[in-house]
Amino acid sequence: MTLSAAITKVRSLLMNQAVLLLNAGMLGLGTLMTAILGFVYWWFAARSFSAEAVGLAAAAISLMNLLANLGEVGLGPFLMGEIGRQKRAGPFLTGALLASFSASIVVGLIYLVIAAWTSTQLGSIVGSSATDLFFVAGCALTAVTLVLDQALVGLLRSGLQLARNVVFAASKLLLLIALGLTLGRATSGLAIFATWFTGQLVSLVVVAGLLVYAGRRVFHRPEIRAFRPVLGQVFGHHTLSMAVQAPALLLPFVVTVMLSAEINAAFYAAWTVLNVALLVPASLASVLFAIAAREPELFPSRLRLSLGLSMLVCAATALAFLFLSRFMLWVFNPAYAVIAGNGLQFLGVAAFGMALKYHYLAVQRLRRRLGFATLVLTGGAVLEIAAAVGGAQFGIAGTANFWVIAVSLEGLLLCPALYWATRHTATQSTIAPSAAAGVSTYGNSLDETDQIGIASRA
Asked: What residue ranges carry the coiled-coil annotation (predicted)?
């Protein structure tokens, strides 16, 4: 083949796959940009505000993300696979946004009732009774953005999704800098939380403005009936996703309630670094599932490769925390290194268990064992939270190390299933129908982006 012919073939391939490559590239770029800006956001917060304010804000934001994910009820992944098939996508999307908004308000109010009933520090996370509704509004707004982002990907409008996430990350950072310049260390946790809320709101306004500028309608009469026949499937996949996500979103909240906001400020700094490192195994597991159905006979070898690369990243993460944990905290704020000491030096070991969980999720989705996987991962989630709560009596080191032990045990229990998958070739009869068709319906494949989103929302 001549050079000219090769160039022509490559150009033809790129032209045929331009939509896929462009949307995948923008999705990856959006994740990278929000992760970087999110890191800078928390670094500036650590350097500019008191540990108590940062710790309370981090706990409130983590809790808000958890409640928003619960209230989203799996509609985001469902839309990602289905909205492109709808002749009237606008009403379909409006119905999903309205449903997630309403469900998140209900979830937020239920949380407030539980917090008031238990009469513990749960209620103080969001400030005082006067700010409760503001917190619930934040949950609802976050749920809307979660659903919208995945719907935009399903519509192959990842450029809008990229714009929304970059605007959100940049605007909340600019607002935080403004707070630092005006109020300084007098800034409260509620004020930091408000930058997150305002950033989400600004990003939605920008997306609406871009749609209006492009001549598209923004408001449609919501369509709800189309969701009824598939609610069971949507809820099933949502339950599985939440089993993986819940411990990661709850842990900063647990540290604040069981220990203190100041300790959580130091913990959350290390937690942010860990979640950025976990982007690699989460991305590998996501891609592994996405391509498995097209060439099932290559799945075992690709799984081995993905696991091998993930383990290398996990080993580097574990070593970095072991020898550099105090330095990491010092980079955020010298006081954090004093608060946590060497209590977080084994936190990086958890990366191994988390990576195994991501790959186990991909394998079980592929083999249509969602019910069994949900039971296993839900049990693991309960174990993780119970270990973190139980370890709190030994301080931050106890909370972190007990959680690491729980995640590691969970990962070890998943190893037999992963080992079996690396030795047996998947067939078209054993993989999920939607995956076999190359379509990610009902969150079957692209729910792994939820794991990627944990880091970018940190």
From this structure: none
CA nearest 41: which of 199, 149, 201, 261?
199
What is the Cα gyration radius of the chain? 22
Q: Could you please report the per-residue DSSP string of 292-305? A: HTTSGGGHHHHHHH
What count of Cα atoms within 13 Å lies in the side-chain half-sphere of residue 405? Answer: 12
Question: What's the rounded Cα separation, in Å, for the pair 417 and 361?
Answer: 11
Q: For the whole model, what pTM was predicted? A: 0.79
DSSP category for residue 214: T
- Name the band, by pLDDT with cuts 50, 70 and 90, for residue 231: low
Q: Which residue has the tokens 């008191």?
A: 50
Beta-carbon contacts of residue 179 (< 8 Å; ≥ 6 apart): 48, 49, 187, 191, 192, 195
* Under 8 Å between Cβ of 185 and 48: yes
Residue 282 near residue 450, CB atoms below 8 Å:
no
Domain boundaries, the chain: 33-228, 230-426
Buried b (16+ CB within 10 A) or exposed e, 326-359: bebbebbbebbbebbbebbbbbbbbbbbbbbbbb
- 168's CB contacts (< 8 A; 6+ apart) are 34, 145, 199, 200, 202, 203
Round to whole Å and give the CA distance between 79 and 443: 8
- Give the span between the Cα atoms of 343 and 350, in whole angstroms: 14
pLDDT in tens, 115-128: 777 655 544 555 55
